[in-house]
Design goal:
Blueprint (H helix, E strand, L loop, with lengths): L11 E2 L2 E2 L30 H6 L1 E3 L7 H6 L3 E9 L5 E9 L5 H9 L2 E2 L2 E3 L2 E3 L1 E9 L8
Antiparallel strand pairs: 1-2, 3-6, 4-5, 4-9, 7-8
Length: 142
């Protein structure tokens, strides 16, 4: 008889559990296991920290010229869907310290690409929040 080896990884960050793991053996008389597809199941949410660690392609946002000229700094908070292929979808602004930064943040993040997230041996879509910070260097501040 071959021994079944499986590594279960669970990371709890800011109330979110990672999506990797090993299926458990069914218990006799238990409730039937869920279907193999995740089509009608809610989309898992991951923390910004977990998303950042899995960012594969980063495109920096262009600092808006008007904001730079005025010495403005700020943060744009975005929500999005990271698809099973790692692309960013359903991107929208949740909050912003100054709307002058919104378009630059949206354009940059739309070009980002993530490593796919896996659940039960399959890549899955996940939701997350992204914080894009616009900060001038000391020489560029007024």
């Amino acid at each position: 008889m071959l021994a079944r080896k499986c590594l279960t990884v669970g990371i709890l960050v800011a109330g979110f559990l990672s999506l990797t793991g090993c299926p458990q053996k069914p218990v006799t008389g238990s409730v039937p296991s869920p279907p193999a597809t995740t089509e009608n199941q809610p989309i898992p949410r991951i923390s910004p920290d977990v998303a950042q660690r899995n960012l594969h392609t980063f495109v920096p946002p262009l600092y808006p010229k008007e904001a730079k000229a005025k010495g403005l700094e700020g943060t744009v908070v975005l929500k999005c869907l990271i698809t099973r292929t790692g692309t960013v979808s359903n991107l929208h602004v949740v909050s912003s310290t100054n709307p002058i930064f919104n378009e630059a943040a949206l354009r940059a993040v739309h070009e980002w690409h993530y490593k796919p997230y896996w659940h039960n041996g399959r890549p899955v879509n996940v939701r997350t929040t992204i914080h894009v910070v616009f900060s001038l260097g000391k020489r560029e501040r007024r």
